[in-house]
């Protein structure tokens, strides 16, 4: 059975070693941040960090990543406090959001390796497809995230994700039949 560390937790997957990492993460670990986009590795919606590399998880099997350390967007920061997440939100970069987890992971890997990436480096590293066309704002947001990661800039506080379950639904008197 393939073993790896996912978001700092040792996992043994009881799946066929030929299973793509994406499906192990989504179906077995319920980590749905990595998205299925194209299935060919072209779009980058499924990007995760594997041992410090941005990897298209639809293109690698559990056998290929056995023994690796995998970080998904959920493991990066559940409260969106990572500099890349905060910078994308502060720069109003996010639109539909489908591609964002993959972009966040690719950018986080880039910033970990290069604390001051140039525009050319960013464009070379972030090959993810975004149908909404966020690219002009994306480069500046990634540079801003790098400045924040270095401590050269402070990003605004990020709103808390989600909604308090007590506020999402509450009991009310039953309606009378008409």
From TrEMBL:
<dbReference type="Pfam" id="PF00111">
    <property type="entry name" value="Fer2"/>
</dbReference>
<dbReference type="InterPro" id="IPR006058">
    <property type="entry name" value="2Fe2S_fd_BS"/>
</dbReference>
<keyword id="KW-0408">Iron</keyword>
<keyword id="KW-0479">Metal-binding</keyword>
<keyword id="KW-0001">2Fe-2S</keyword>
<feature type="domain" description="2Fe-2S ferredoxin-type">
    <location>
        <begin position="2"/>
        <end position="76"/>
    </location>
</feature>
<dbReference type="GO" id="GO:0016491">
    <property type="term" value="F:oxidoreductase activity"/>
</dbReference>
<keyword id="KW-0560">Oxidoreductase</keyword>
<dbReference type="GO" id="GO:0051537">
    <property type="term" value="F:2 iron, 2 sulfur cluster binding"/>
</dbReference>
<dbReference type="InterPro" id="IPR012675">
    <property type="entry name" value="Beta-grasp_dom_sf"/>
</dbReference>
<feature type="region of interest" description="Disordered">
    <location>
        <begin position="150"/>
        <end position="178"/>
    </location>
</feature>
<dbReference type="InterPro" id="IPR036010">
    <property type="entry name" value="2Fe-2S_ferredoxin-like_sf"/>
</dbReference>
<dbReference type="InterPro" id="IPR051452">
    <property type="entry name" value="Diverse_Oxidoreductases"/>
</dbReference>
<protein>
    <submittedName>
        <fullName>Isoquinoline 1-oxidoreductase subunit alpha</fullName>
    </submittedName>
</protein>
<dbReference type="InterPro" id="IPR036884">
    <property type="entry name" value="2Fe-2S-bd_dom_sf"/>
</dbReference>
<dbReference type="Pfam" id="PF01799">
    <property type="entry name" value="Fer2_2"/>
</dbReference>
<dbReference type="InterPro" id="IPR001041">
    <property type="entry name" value="2Fe-2S_ferredoxin-type"/>
</dbReference>
<dbReference type="GO" id="GO:0046872">
    <property type="term" value="F:metal ion binding"/>
</dbReference>
<dbReference type="InterPro" id="IPR002888">
    <property type="entry name" value="2Fe-2S-bd"/>
</dbReference>
<keyword id="KW-0411">Iron-sulfur</keyword>
């Amino acid at each position: 059975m393939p073993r790896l560390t996912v978001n700092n937790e040792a996992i043994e997957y009881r799946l066929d070693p030929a299973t793509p990492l994406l499906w192990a993460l989504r179906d077995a670990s319920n980590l749905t941040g990595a998205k299925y986009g194209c299935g060919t590795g072209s779009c980058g919606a499924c990007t995760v960090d594997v041992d410090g590399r941005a990897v298209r998880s639809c293109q690698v099997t559990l056998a290929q990543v056995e023994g690796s350390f995998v970080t998904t967007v959920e493991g990066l920061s559940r409260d969106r406090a990572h500099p890349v997440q905060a910078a994308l939100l502060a720069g109003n970069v996010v639109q539909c959001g489908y591609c964002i987890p993959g972009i966040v992971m690719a950018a986080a890997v880039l910033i970990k390796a290069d604390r001051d990436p140039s525009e050319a480096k960013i464009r070379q590293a972030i090959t993810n497809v975004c149908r909404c066309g966020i690219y002009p704002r994306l480069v500046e947001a990634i540079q801003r995230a790098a400045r924040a990661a270095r401590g050269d800039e402070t990003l605004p506080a990020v709103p808390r994700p989600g909604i308090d379950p007590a506020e999402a639904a509450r009991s009310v008197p039953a309606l009378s039949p008409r």
